[in-house]
Amino acid sequence: MASNCAAAFCGISRYFAKKENLDVIFHKFPENPLLLRKWVEFCKKGESWTPTKNNVLCSIHFLKEDYQMLGSPLNDNRRVLRMLKPCAFPSVIRTEKIKQKKNDNNHLNAVTEEISHDNIANHKTSQNHTESMAPTDNITEAACLSCSEKDDQIRFLTSQLKKYEGKSNQLLEVNQFLTNQLETTSNELKDCKQEIHCIKIEYEKLKKASISPKQFVNEMKTALKDTLTSNQIDFIIQKKKRVTWTKEEISKFFTLRYFSKRSYKYAQTLNLKQGILFDVLALLKNITDSLDIQDRECVLSFDEMKVNKIMEYDPASDEVIGPHSYMQVVMARRLFKNWKQPIFIGFDQQMTKAITLEIIMRLQEININVVAIVSDNCQSNVGCWKDLGAHNYLNPYFTHPVTKCNIYVFPDAPHLLKLIRNWLLDSGFEYNNKIIKSNLLEDLVEKRNQAELTPIFKITNNHLKMSPQERQNVRRASELLSRTTAIALRQYYPNNQEANELASFIEKVDLWFNISNSRNPAADIHYKKSYNANDDQKLALKEMFEMVESMKPLGKKNMQLFQKSILMHITSLRLLYDDMKAKHNIKFISTFKLNQDVLENFFSQLRLSGGAYDHPSPLSCLYRIRMIIISKSPTCLTNHTDSMCDNRNFEPSEEFLSATVFSSTDIIQTLPDTDEMININMVCQGLDGESEDSDILSTGRNTNVIHTQQESDGLQYVLGYIAHKFASKYPELKLGYQTLMDTSEHTYCQPPTFLKHLSIGGLFEPSIEFLNLGNIMENIFHEMNPNGSLAKDNLDIQDRECVLSFDEMKVNQIMEYNPASDEVIGPYSYMQVVMARRWFKNWKQPIFIGFDQQMTKAITLEIIMRLQEININVVAIVSDNCQSNVECWKDLGAHNYLNPYFTHPVTKCNIYVFPDAPHLLKLIRNWLLDSGFEYKNKIIKLDLLEDLVEKRNQAELTPIFKITNNHLKMSPQERQNVRRASELLSRTTAIALRQYYPDNQEANELASLIEKVDLWFNISNPRNPAADIHYKKSYNANDDQKLALKEMFEMVDSMKPLGKKNMQLFQKSILMHIISLQLLYDDMKAKHNIKFISTFKVNEDSDILSIGRNTNVIHTQQESDGLQYVLGYIAHKFARKYPELKLGYQTFMDASEHTYCQPPTFLKHLSIGGLFEPSIDFLNLGNIMENIFHEMNPNGSLAKGTGIVQKLTRIIEAQIPQLPFEIIRSFSKQRVI
Question: Mean per-residue pLDDT for 1153-1167?
Answer without folding.
Answer: 51
